Amino acid sequence: MEELVNIEPVCVRGGLYEVDVTQGECYPVYWNQSDKIPVMRGQWFIDGTWQPLEEEESNLIEQEHLNCFRGHQMQENFDIEVSKSIDGKDGSGINYSAIHSFKLSRNHVDWHSMDEVYLYSDATTSKIARTVTQKLGFSKASSSGTRLHRGYVEEATLEDKPSQTTHIVFVVHGIGQKMDQGRIIKNTAMMREAARKIEEKHFSNHATHVEFLPVEWRSKLTLDGDTVDSITPDKVRGLRDMLNSSAMDIMYYTSPLYRDELVKGLQQELNRLYSLFCSRNPDFEEKGGKVSIVSHSLGCVITYDIMTGWNPVRLYEQLLQKEEELPDERWMSYEERHLLDELYITKRRLREIEERLHGLKASSITQAPALKFKVENFFCMGSPLAVFLALRGIRPGNSGNQDHILPREICNRLLNIFHPTDPVAYRLEPLILKHYSNISPVQIHWYNTSNPLPYEHMKPSFLNPAKESTSVSENEGISTIPSPVTSPVLPRRHYGESITNIGKASILGAASIGKGLGGMLFSRFGRSSTSQPSDPSKESMEDEKKPISSPPTTTVATQTLPHSSSGFLDSAYFRLQESFYYLPQLLFPENVMQNKDNSLVELDHRIDFELREGLVESRYWSAVTSHTAYWSSLDVALFLLTFMYKHEHDNDAKPNLDPI
After folding, report:
1. Tens digits of per-residue pLDDT, 291-303?
2. Residue 370: which of 295, 489, 475, 265 has the closest Cα?
3. Which of 192, 195, 330, 602 sits at a 20 to 30 Å CA gap from 509?
């Protein structure tokens, strides 16, 4: 009968898994898993613990129960009080015995009523215990029986259905997946679990839901087969195999032979998952569902190349074309030059024909996009993308627009998350505006911060030009780092003062700003170790620009001035109008982009976001572990969900922020 009846699988765990009822197995929908998860149907449950009985015994009890009580009226509430007392007698003192009994292999079941069922063990010790307790006046049920309930303690309702998924997140792994297959599935599960905790705490009032799906693209690739393994020496084989399974992915991606296979593998997996999700959730696209991508390590570079369509072959062809256009200055005979001219004309004519042919194909056939969906947010974690872009020739521009590296029509928002000690991660903002290399990344809030300041309201702050001392004592480090709850937005100790306090711009050292201040202000902070005498002709101008109050004067011998222990420039105050004019040249003597009013060009949106270091954290140890510490971080989960749910409040007015 089971073979004739087609029983549809049952979706569980929010649609991520399905249960084959006939086989009693649970399996994931969106990824492969070799080990099947056994499941059992729960019909009869143990009182108190509400654990289900073994399915074989449960089926026998259910069949016997239906044979005896089919058609009888059941009580609607599990918690209804049983009128019989514990000693097996009712109020009149008459003994109350079982109305039906059923023998199992090692146990037997007594029905005292339709909804009062007890399970007894037939072991010898249990029988002796029942006999003794019954002679002492206790009932059989109270002495050794285990009460059973038909059905779970809580009845299922329509409200038990999970919230509708309006945002899916594809989680893309980096290198090392071959070494530890299935690792991205475990990492995504950790990220999903952290997101669930954050959703319950911070986003419980939303009726929507964000789902995380792992993208495992490495295991399906063949690449070179086992060629690299066959040429690997046997000495230190374990270390070599680890490198072959991890770092070799970077070499594969930089290889013109295997790069396309990696790109197509990830592209096809992303499209497959999206199509599968839409087929199982047909209302997702109709109701404006959004898609974001979280990529880690090398996965950021591959995902970026898929979205932008970057191809090194085109770059190589462009370089060849430029070289062909360059004149050959060596001496040539008349015949050789004549042949080269004909070759140049022929190549130009061939190029024109190819362009016309491509134009005809483009007009008749619309090229399908690489991805079947628009990317709302692209989160990079521990990403070396900035290094790849720099080596491809990307240089800072003069506009603070994200389009310089990733157009908004391809991806609405680019966000770069990294731990300060992650050796693989690099910043992206200085590739858009170079002076952002002197501006600190935005610090990500701790997950337990009360009333954190929105990221759009956080003012940029300058990095301290001085290198932080590496010999900081633990007591000093702990005392200077703020509490995660009380001070959520203060920067780390080696960061400079927030530049919103620009009217109190500080200067190096505790020296006087009297005679010779003009030379100090327009110097490049100690780039020259030789002293420069003050210009007497500028003394009157400098006297006018003295601060309102200054510390006691001391003689400044050189331009290399000491730094204060607080990490700020020292306490000389400028007038607000003067600080707006001088500060850009003061901090950025080169590579500074300014508007016509001498204000610095700022980014439309911040891109670099940095995790906060722990209160007691070894930088050398965290340099080893930080690259893989993003998955279970509650801080990262809160940060991701903050931007996932942000689109629901995009109609709010944008705050008026001061320029940098």
Report:
1. 999 999 999 999 9
2. 265
3. 602
CA separation for the pair 132, 598 (Å, rounded): 97
Pick the closest to residue 605 from 457, 494, 462 (CA basis): 457
Q: What is the overall mean pLDDT for the chain?
A: 74
- 313 class by beta-carbon count within 10 Å (0-12 exposed, 13-18 middle, 19+ buried): exposed
**Which domains occur in the chain, in start order?**
9-41 (no CATH), 43-68+97-151 (no CATH), 164-315+374-462+602-645 (3.40.50)
Question: Please, which residues have CB within 8 angstroms of residue 490's CB and are 6 or more apart in sequence?
Answer: 482
Dmax over Cα atoms in the chain, in whole Å? 130
Q: What is the dihedral of CA 191, 193, 198, 200, to 10 degrees?
A: 150
Q: Name, in order, each residue with C-beta under 8 angstroms of 613's C-beta and a sequence gap of 6 or more.
A: 419, 420, 421, 481, 492, 619, 622
259/261 Cα distance (integer angstroms):
5
Res 245: pLDDT: 79
pLDDT tens digits along 18-29? 999 888 899 999
The answer to whether 297 is a known catalytic residue is: yes
Q: Which of 139, 292, 295, 297 is labelled catalytic?
A: 297
DSSP characters for 253-286?
HHSTTTHHHHHHHHHHHHHHHHHHHHHH-THHHH
Asked whether the beta carbons of 42 and 152 are under 8 A apart, the reply is yes
Position with higher pLDDT, 318 vs 505 = 318
- Rounded CA-CA distance 567/490 in Å is 13
CA 263-266-271 angle, to 5 degrees, is 120
Tokens representing 240 are 């070599």
Q: Tokens for 341? A: 């001219």
